[in-house]
Amino acid sequence: MDACPVAPPRLLLGRKKISEVRIADVEQFMRDVKAGKTAKDEKCGPRVRIIVKGGAGAATKGVRDLSALFTFAVRQELVAANPCACQSAPKIDPHYECSL
Question: Do 79 and 70 meet the contact criterion of CB atoms below 8 Å apart?
């Protein structure tokens, strides 16, 4: 089965170097993903379709993955601090309660 050709992702952080990313950039990234700027609906063959919606869950996962990248960069001494560390991710489902 042939792989579906996927277009390159939209550059929400631009072409910034890792040392140039600031807290405001991470916050803007989260707002953009939550608003659906990464959304796409692409048909790549018979019975093959890619639907990406964005939203709060995708934004939270994106910031969490970005934070992991910056944590690695701090450990490798590529950057001084993790700009995602100050970002508080909202709860995806505020009605869910966990009881022990």
Answer: yes
